[in-house]
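User: Quick sanity check before I run a bigger batch. Here is a single chain. Can you write out its predicted 3D structure?
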Amino acid sequence: MNTDKLWEELAWLGNIWQSRFNNSSLSWEEISNASLAPAHDENDLFSQILIENKLDSSSRAILALTISAELDPHQLILTNDINEEVLQLAGGARVSHIPYLLPTAQTACFLIGGVNAKDRFETLKLLGDQQTLVKEKLIVCHKEDDLPLLAARMGIHPNLMASLLSGKESEVYLPPGFPAQQLTSKLAWSDLIIDEATKQQIEQLIDWVSHREALKNIPGLSKHLKPGYKCLFHGESGTGKTLAATLIGKLTGKPVFRIDLSMISSKYVGETEKNLAQVFSEAENKDWILFFDEADALFGKRSATKDAHDRYANQEVSYLLQRVEEYEGLVILSSNFKTNIDSAFTRRFKQLIPFKAPKTEERRLFWKSNIPTNFTIDEDKVIEELAQRAPLTGAGIINAIEYACLYAAKRGEQELHYQDLVEGARQELLKQGKSFSR
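Assistant: Done. Predicted structure follows.
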């Protein structure tokens, strides 16, 4: 990224600060006319962010204020030649070991509005949850419950900071302990070997992700559309549910995040809702695809209310149902058994997509397409026998091939032995309580 535009923005902020400290009575119009915001450069990442979010000069100044705290804090150093009244108006959080103020909502109000009560109020409105700066995750406002809104600490959103530092707009920052993991894969759509009917249903999902904006613009239809798209992938482990979700994101250019339900669920009252709120808050407006793997843990059937524990557990499910219902993007639930999912959820799914154990022909394709190209085997004989006799899932076949490759490497050979492939397949079948077919 060309950082020249970013430093131009911060230099512009410095001029605004100087004008404001010199005269706290000036209107924002007077200040912004005296120091025009830098022109955009469509080839620059920072300019692209400003253009895409249609930020006016006051919103740009607030964003620049949060960036300056990270990259150019000397603008926020308090000097002795500024009178005490102005310092009080500027606000800001002061930390003993930091020689400059940390911007608060009051700092933004002073920067834009000075001592004009109306302008200060209009500035405060720009910091609302549904306004562009916060809604589009350009800045964050940390408000403590027992303090007024003016005391809310302001900062650049970590996602935007990560993008500016890396020069990649798609950069995603996840705070430590965030209960989700981005899914990626080197595999392609052609590597997904599943039942043809299932594949067609997944293609319908891809069509929705790719063309949902067009649906919203169809007269007479848009008013009937519910937010987002919800579906259930169901079938035994290893049949391609996670890979399918990952490839949907890869084909549509959308990040896919697997929700870690072990980190979401909590034995403490209210903590599960808080963890879920963190996920949905981060995902909203970023167009993430949310993938709830082994979803039975939270989306399972609600129990009869016998005690306080049951009541709180059912409240968690109700809260989850509400957040999923409101989510604008694609939500995929994954379960080994469709019947394990609460009917309150299944009624709201657009699709229930089965992932069946592969049949002989599909197993044959799995074996043929995943034998490493630089290894040799007696292909027709061995693959046919394995496909016929070993009722494995795709994941099981990969594990069996890995087993045989390990022993080939141990021998220093590039030939997969029949007995190693059979032994690998046998071990995988034992995990499932199965045996070689006769």
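Strands lie at 139-142, 153-156, 180-183, 229-234, 256-259, 289-292, 330-335, 351-354.

User: Great, the batch can go ahead then.
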